[in-house]
Amino acid sequence: MLKYDPRKLVREDNPGANPGDLGMFKFVPDDLPDGAPLVVVLHGCGQTAAGYATGAGWTTLAERWGFALLAPEQQAANNQAKCFNWFEAGDIERGQGEAASIRQMVERMRADHAIDPKRIYVTGLSAGGAMAAVLLAAYPEVFSGGGIVAGLPYKSAVGMREALGTMFRGRIKTPVEWGDLVRTASGHTGPWPVVSIWQGNADKTVAASNAVELANQWANVHGAPGPASEGLVNGHRHILLRNPDGKPVVELFEIAGMGHGAPIFPDDPEFPLGEAEAFILPVGISSTLGIARFWGLEPGAVRTEEIVTVPERVEAGGAETPVFTRPAKTGILKKLWKGIKRIVGRT
């Protein structure tokens, strides 16, 4: 069983307006200075707020680096599997349901703990990752960055039937179609949150193609048609996209051989973080550390001023080619894949 100090996260019984009927937990390190960052951490199905925030290493990192945590928790009355309802129309729109509840909790944290409004971030795993994508789309003016682990694009599904199909098989749209879903969610015109995306390429619960579509959704929103740079980090594929001004705006990690869960590296000799548990997987790389560094939360990191220029809207025809793609299948594997598709009737 996962061991964690229950004092790390405390329940807030008065979160404010709560139309989604979620629980609110928070962790505020001792002597947190005014103007500290806030990270919203959203658990996956069947998990608890404390279990995920601790297992993935967010409580440890918050204490080391000096930021506050907000950890909303789903209730079985809302979803029997305790999944955030990232696919329900009444929970994914600005000002409604679970999205509005989390937004209100952020405001409560800002007021109670003097949080820097320009350094608020959201991350989550699986259903929590998909809900993080919802919050980035519905409230882009609130969040400076997102970290989505085994999640899905905003409005990739509405309703349970669509949600299951999209999870297992993915859903394909053009980058512009994906981007338009985000742009119309709030009426916001920028600047937009930066987004770090993490996905196991052996995930049987959320198809890896969802991460690619999600990355293309945010690449289009940022008006950054590419090209993106690609390399390996700890043996795992990493693609980084910068906007026309040179600022890193979207990154995608594809974790080789990993199934459904959040990657952690508890045995890292330089920075051990996290504790293995169901859907929290020790694979030699930490999504928690990587996401926090992408946001610039590491003490001593050089922080650049937010670029406030608004990118021109990317029209159809100008960015129809996806920036992010899955690795090409070559040689005998490519031939085998084509044969499998013919057998099952896919084109």
From TrEMBL:
Cellular-component GO terms for this entry: extracellular region
Instruction: Kindly give the Gene3D superfamilies that the UniProt entry links to this protein.
Output: alpha/beta hydrolase
Q: Which UniProt keywords apply?
A: Hydrolase, Signal
The highest taxon in the source lineage is Bacteria
The record's listing under InterPro entries reads:
AB_hydrolase_fold, Esterase_phb, Plant_Biomass_Hydrol_Est
Q: Does the keyword Signal apply?
A: yes
* GO molecular function per UniProt: hydrolase activity
**What Pfam families does the entry give?**
Esterase_PHB
Xref: NCBIfam families: esterase_phb
Q: What is this protein called?
A: Esterase
